[in-house]
Write a structure and sequence with these properties.
About 20% of the residues lie in helices and about 25% in strands. It is of the alpha/beta class. It has a single domain (about 1-115), classed as 60s Ribosomal Protein L30, Chain: A (2-Layer Sandwich). Strands 3-2-4-1-5 form a 5-stranded mixed beta sheet, covered by helices on one side.
Length: about 120
């Protein structure tokens, strides 16, 4: 079964180092909490809010051992008025035998407010 594993994190400013560090932190947490093996990942979509232009966040995933060949695409989030700024969102499509309600979606920093109704972690 392919399941979607969601995550989001915010950064303080539009800098390459902050975007890459935050993205790597988020992806590593998603992997850890859901016991994801890169071989089981069909694809990853990463979106950023319109003010984040300093880096492609997919570059952070490439620094994680074993994730070189996972297909990943970056895109811009819809700029809805009043929405959370400086936000990086990840959607991982994973072949996993976990029921949907047991997936651990990861929302870090200010992104916690996006989905308080989902099972999540409140790590850094």
């Amino acid at each position: 079964m392919i399941r979607g594993v969601r995550g989001a994190v915010t950064v303080d400013k539009n800098s390459e180092s902050e975007i890459l560090e935050a993205t790597e932190l988020l992806i590593r947490q998603m992997i850890l909490e859901n016991k994801i093996n890169s071989e089981d990942v069909a694809s990853v979509f990463i979106s950023v809010t319109e003010e984040l232009t300093a880096a492609f966040p997919a570059k952070a995933m490439r620094s994680i051992e074993g994730w070189t060949y996972v297909p990943v695409m970056c895109m811009r989030e819809i700029p809805v008025e009043g929405s959370l700024r400086n936000c990086i969102r990840v959607m991982m499509h994973v072949n996993i035998d976990v029921p949907q309600q047991n997936i651990c979606h990861i929302y870090l920093r200010e992104a916690i407010q996006l989905r308080p109704d989902l099972k999540t972690t409140d790590s850094p």
